[in-house]
Amino acid sequence: MIIDGKQAAADLRVALANEVKALKESKGITPSLTVVLVGEDPASQVYVRNKAKQTMEVGMISNEIKMPADTSQTALLSQLALLNNDASIHGILVQLPLPKHIDESVVISAINPEKDVDGFHAMNSGRLLNGEAGALVPCTPQGCIILAKQHLGDDLSGQHAVVIGRSNIVGKPVALLLLQENCTVTIAHSRTKNLPEVCQQADILVAAVGRANFVQASWVKKGATVIDVGINRIEADSSEGKGSAKAKLVGDVDFDAVSEVCGAITPVPGGVGPMTIACLLKNTLEAAKLYG
């Protein structure tokens, strides 16, 4: 079974649009998201346009602040201070990566955690770790859980989940979310001994290592649910030798081979990716409800 992330994201946006409408009618609050883009990275510009489009589609207010690539860290922090103090703005997102002269950790720490819809602030990380209410959780890990439930149902209790990757953006938070779902969780990484054998134990396998086609079919237990977070650009051979090779996107999992073994798998593209923006909108709504 292929888990359709595009459809899951579309379904979530419909549900969010209904909640946004209800919040407007009951409390007069329209959730508002501001995205700050520093520089002119082409991929970042595409992401920001998609975020703005989907934000407005669900009835939220979308704001965008563009700053030149040579913007100083001090100037960016001053802009964030203004946004933090603007009560009409419920969510703030600084598009990453930032230019090299700006310290991303300092910028993330400067965002009001109640408006940190990326879920990267240390306070939100701590709330997630402690299982506290009010945590704004990183978007991609949220999407992973939603997609796992698409196949396995809402109750993930007792499932053995193996997460390959220990980043603060995906690996660690998705492991914590799986623990909250009463899974038994193993975090594997580049230093894990006998990695294929560890992966073979997984009922749910989450691959978030950033290495193209890394996970092989022999690593996957028959019937397992595979969530592929990787987005890797590789060269594709041009058909019939005409023209130059073009790049294509693949995940961290050898999709064709693993599909023959697993019970369900997310494709790349069209799997976890669409869920990330949908969960960003979900966080913006949550911030408006909790702190607006």
Can you walk me through this structure?
- This protein is of the alpha/beta class.
- It has two domains: 28-118, Rossmann fold, CATH 3.40.50; 139-273, Rossmann fold.
- The protein is 41% helix and 16% strand.
- It is built from ten helices and ten strands.
- The strands form three sheets. A five-stranded parallel beta sheet has the order 5-4-6-7-10. It has a three-stranded parallel beta sheet with strand order 2-1-3, sandwiched between helices.
- Helix 6 crosses helix 7 (171-180) and helix 6 crosses helix 10 (272-291).
- 43% of the residues are buried.
Distance between the termini: 40 Å
The class by helix and strand makeup works out as alpha/beta
Question: Runs with pLDDT <50, length 5+?
Answer: none
Give the helix level as a range of percent.
Answer: 40-55%
Number of strands: 10
**What is Rg?**
20 Å
Biggest β-sheet: count, sense, barrel?
5 strands, parallel
- The backbone outline, from C-alpha atoms, is globular
Helix run count: 10
The CATH homologous superfamily name of the largest domain equals NAD(P)-binding Rossmann-like Domain
CATH architecture of the largest domain: 3-Layer(aba) Sandwich
> Domains counted in the coordinates: how many?
2
Q: State the strand order across the main sheet.
A: 5-4-6-7-10
Give the ordered list of helices and strands.
Answer: HEHEHEHHHEHEHEEEEHEH
Q: Concise description?
A:
The protein is an alpha/beta fold. Helix content is 41%, strand content 16%. The chain folds into 2 domains: 28-118, Leucine Dehydrogenase, chain A, domain 1 (Rossmann fold), CATH 3.40.50.10860; 139-273, Rossmann fold.
